[in-house]
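Q: what sequence does this backbone want?
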């Protein structure tokens, strides 16, 4: 039973690492050339704004919506983090399948709540766009997908479980 717990822990740890991105910051380019000052990566909002050619006023409006959503989601993110810990603990301590299913169902409900708020946020942003921008919105929203999933220090930007 302990071996199974260790295996599950290793799988969870590998999944968490994979969500963080994977590439390290060695300062080396893919060709092996030293790259002492890599360009500052653009934010998700910068990429979104560039893809849709947003005006500065639209960028400010979108940013305000995203900030409000981030604040709204903070307590849910904290609950999700707690839930993940409870699930891992239940797996490692050999809790019954019924107990584990109860924890998983509660976690799923939290994830659904996050998805609903994210969808509402996308609807608000979509309403700000001009018709020609709306036509490209589906492609551009991929830059914002998952932007609210994780708080600071969690790698920010990976999709929950995807």
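A:
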């Amino acid at each position: 039973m302990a071996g199974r717990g260790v295996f599950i822990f290793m799988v969870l740890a590998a999944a968490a690492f994979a969500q963080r991105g994977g590439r390290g910051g060695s300062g080396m380019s893919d060709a092996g050339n030293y790259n002492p000052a890599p360009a500052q990566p653009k934010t998700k909002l910068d990429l979104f704004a560039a893809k849709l050619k947003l005006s500065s006023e639209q960028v400010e409006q979108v940013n305000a919506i995203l900030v409000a959503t981030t604040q709204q989601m903070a307590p849910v993110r904290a609950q999700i983090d707690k839930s993940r810990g409870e699930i891992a603990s239940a797996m490692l301590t050999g809790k019954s399948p019924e107990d584990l299913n109860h924890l998983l169902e509660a976690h799923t409900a939290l994830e659904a709540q996050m998805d609903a708020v994210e969808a509402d946020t996308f609807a608000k942003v979509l309403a700000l766009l001009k018709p020609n921008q709306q036509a490209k919105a589906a492609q551009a929203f991929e830059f914002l997908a998952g932007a609210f999933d994780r708080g600071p220090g969690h790698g920010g930007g990976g999709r929950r479980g995807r």
